[in-house]
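Hi support team,

I submitted a single chain yesterday and got back a structure, but I'm not sure I'm reading the token output correctly. Could someone confirm the output below corresponds to the sequence I sent? I've pasted both exactly as they appear in my results page.

Thanks,
R.
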Amino acid sequence: MTDRFQVRQLLSGNGTSIVIHARPDNQANIPRRYSVKGTTGPDAETLKTGDSGARIACGVISERR
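Hi R., thanks for writing in. Yes, this is the structure output for that exact sequence:
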């Protein structure tokens, strides 16, 4: 579930793809457990996917005609 876009936005332009992850994005709320070279901060995984976990589905969204 998301409020980040509307259906019309998905169907405009040159097409839309979607990737669904196993867990929710942490929205840049970096847990204190992360430490890079002694400084608290995100690791590569959290920078890449927001700690959302494995990709569990993907696809292309298009209008049915």
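A quick pointer for reading it: The chain has a mean pLDDT of 78. Let us know if anything else looks off.

Best,
Support desk
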